[in-house]
Amino acid sequence: MEPIWDAPEAILEELLKDSPKTPKGGRIEGSENVKSFLNYLYRKAESEIQKLIFSREPAAWVRVAMEQLVRWSVIYLNEQVNGKELVSETFPNTLAPIGRYGWRYIIDVSLRHVTASSKLFRGIPEEKEVIQAFSLMTIMSLSSEWSNFFHYFGEEFPLFFAELEPLSAVLMPQPMADYGNEFERRILYMRQKPDWQNLEQVYPNIKEGRYAQILDAALQPNVGFSINDLNKFLDALVEITEPYVGIVVVHSRQYLSEWIADISEMSIKTVNGIVDFAFLSRAKLPGDNRDFLKRSDMLRMLNFAGVSLPRIRHLDALYSPSSMRGEVLTDNEHLLISVPMFTEWIDHLFWSLIHGVRTDLKKKKWFRPALNQLEEYYRKNTFEGILVEFYGEIGYHCIWGLKKLSTGEYLPCGEIDILAYNPSNNTLDIVEVKVIAGSLTFRGWHQMYQDHFTQKKYHYKFLSKLNWVKNNAAIVRHEFKCKCKVEVQSELLIRARFVTKYPNIAKFYVSDYEVMTYEELREFFRSSQPM
What we know:
Blueprint: H1 9-16, E1 27-29, H2 31-54, H3 58-82, H4 96-111, H5 127-153, E2 160-163, E3 174-175, H6 180-190, H7 196-199, H8 209-223, H9 227-241, E4 249-252, H10 253-264, H11 268-278, E5 279-281, E6 306-310, H12 327-330, E7 333-337, H13 339-354, H14 359-362, H15 368-393, E8 397-402, E9 416-422, E10 427-434, H16 442-453, H17 458-471, H18 473-484, E11 493-500, E12 514-517, H19 518-528
Parallel strand pairs: 5-6, 10-11, 11-12
Antiparallel strand pairs: 1-2, 2-3, 4-7, 6-7, 8-9, 9-10
Helix pairs in contact: 2-5, 3-4, 4-5, 8-15, 9-10, 9-13, 10-11
């Protein structure tokens, strides 16, 4: 089934009706003015969506949100993984990111208000209310994203305007100065789709081998399951839902856990360990004042596979009349899960662990050493190793991980990730390697900038290494002679490269070295010289 949606035009008209904030004329000019108006729109839409949620049973909204989230996710993931766009006459697939973010937001907000004490049954959301919710989410998503752009990059790009005809155009501001091309260039670069064939080797199967060993050593004694158990759980879920693997399973925890345990031949204790770890529950949510856009807020639906609801008075918010029997009536907990969501969660979990994104899990003393080891192993043994191998294939001799000289002296500038020398053209590449999580949002780009120049100071650390290499050519020659048995000639051409896995906004702010992805590095050598 396709997701339910509609363009936000009608909702925008309603929000702005008789509003003193609505500008007279056809456009809003100036970044600050556009930002102020978008902030106003966001607050209005947020207020309306809260009213909408409270007008119906929160548990019913959770179910609706899970169903819509699955539908949008199938569309989004099909395009990301298979490189195919699902062309439909009834919805634009470009809305999939909004659908995925928005319906997770609805789950986050609704889950807090699920309770067993409410006597009044507020009913199940009607289709027109689901459409209204999506329109409000679209307004919130786009207005907050552009507001973040003007907040973080407004000084650099102060001249923007927003049209008011049609009203939905206000959610897509446009540059009104000559830097329009530069702005567009950055957008296209930062949001480019990767060439999965090139990147396939930098995505290891961490469900096996050393990666699984590191994780299992932490998971099994502390939460009671292994990586292989997650696969068994998923296989059982597939068997339960076939042939309709896209449906959302809603059942009592006791019944569903026993069913999965029976199919998978895992113990009920193991299944419960997975549910406790992978499902978002009201008990896991922190205080009331939350910013669901904050990257640091880990306790939200983005990082969970399913939802666990507490005992509720009005079971018809979740179940059809024919389903309300047995454990459904007596259990204190109800689970909502689907095969697509659990599949994506496993992949997202592994991705977030090797990129150091799950800061909440790092706070757990029993998990922290394993996560640090996992990140280091991926950065050093996988990503850096692939770069060293690539340089070797095109005729370079590499010193990998130079932090101690042959004399026993440590480098004053810190460890140099890769020094790659090509005798045929007397070129030396000094390479800094960073496995930094990518981002498609303006807030995420700003955090990249902060990490590069202010907080983690990657820029200045790399310049220190570059200067050391330039000022110590004789030592560099000696190291290559000792470690690679190669003579480095004089008149050396030195190139500095800051190589990342994903596009990094720092690319547009440095001139002393090149910031490039692994794909760009491959393309550079492919186009500039025989490989």
